[in-house]
Amino acid sequence: MFYLAVTTPISPHEAKTLYLNETLVAFLMRWGQGISDTFLGLRLFFLFAGFLSIVLFYQLSKKTFAKPEDTYLATFIFMLLPGILTGTTLANIAIIVLPVVLLFALMYEKGYFWILPLLMLVLFFIHEASIIFFIAVLLYAIAHKEKRLAIVSSAFLLVCIYLAKGIVIGGRPSGHFLEIFGLYATLFSPFVFLYFFYALYRILLKGKKNLLWYISFTALAFSLLLSIRQRVHITDFAPYVMIAVPLMLSVFNQSMRVRLPQFRKMYQTGSHFIILTLIVSAFAIITHKASYYHSGMHEKHFAKRIYAPYEKVKKLREEGVKCYDGQQRSEWYQFQYYNMPLCNKK
């Protein structure tokens, strides 16, 4: 994560956020720039949030699993999720929200109710889509007859509705159902997402529904329903679905450990294959810079929008060019970050 944060040039979304938005993400990026005017400074607080998320996830997994090896495996899978690797490397709101959600679940498991309203208040201010979280917590509180939690979550939900704060729903219906599946497959890696989907569905039918399940399932269900009508921003839902790794591992353990050792081979082979694909996905992300420069497929590479403007600015500087009007509109703010402004200011 540290290597990626240091070596990856600024992305179009990061550049646009830095220069156009007055959000928490933009504020943290500028604050980091004040500490170090490098790619690392730009992502310093997001890198810290990513590491904090791993620590909190490990602590939450310890509360979930009785065996240490299950805790280690769950944390290993969580660390290698493409969504965690890219979310920690590139400035975005999801990686800031994630440790707050994990801390909420951890404090609830430990019985520290007094801190839960404070964490909900933090989520209310930092995440526009926090209404999803409040709905999930309210559903859990009603199902498990948690009166205090139901009152607090209801209060935040009503405030969100009153202030019209949340996910914008509008426009003409347009199908993006397959697109959201592709985004989730990118977030988890394809086979991990398939098992994630299966695990949530199986728990829905006959499993124990804990707080993590309610948060993850609610976010997944909302995103799928909204995708039927409109394009969905994955950062609205990612912090709430990625916490479901312990649920996946619990479902797998329940399926495998009830069987005699001689009948576990199929499950073990399947799990090894899924983890192998996860490692391959993580390796592809970590080595994306080398693959961009050495694959000979610049035009089709997934990192083209990050590296093409960076290379173009380097070439222009070598030629002594001080300003440039030939960049695409989507590259304007990346060029601005590299101190290569438009010649024609209009």
Q: What is the gist of this entry?
A:
This protein has helices at 2-7, 12-20, 24-35, 39-42, 44-64, 68-80, 82-89, 94-110, 116-126, 131-143, 147-162, 177-188, 190-206, 211-229, 238-241, 245-257, 265-286, 288-294, 304-318, 332-337. It has 20 helices and no strands.
Task: Give the SSE layout.
Elements: H1 2-7, H2 12-20, H3 24-35, H4 39-42, H5 44-64, H6 68-80, H7 82-89, H8 94-110, H9 116-126, H10 131-143, H11 147-162, H12 177-188, H13 190-206, H14 211-229, H15 238-241, H16 245-257, H17 265-286, H18 288-294, H19 304-318, H20 332-337
Structure explained in plain terms:
36% of the residues are buried. By secondary structure, the chain is mainly alpha-helical. The protein is 71% helix and 0% strand. The protein is built from 20 helices and no strands. The model has no long low-confidence stretch (mean pLDDT 90). The radius of gyration is 22 Å and the shape is globular.
Number of strands: 0
* Number of helical regions: 20
Low-confidence region ranges: none
The chain-level structural class is: mainly alpha
**What characteristic shape results from the CA principal axes?**
globular
Residue-averaged pLDDT:
90
Radius of gyration: 22 Å
- Report the helical percentage: over 70%
Instruction: Note the gap between the termini.
Output: 39 Å
What fraction of the residues are assigned to beta strands by DSSP? under 5%
Strand/helix succession: HHHHHHHHHHHHHHHHHHHH
Biggest sheet features: none
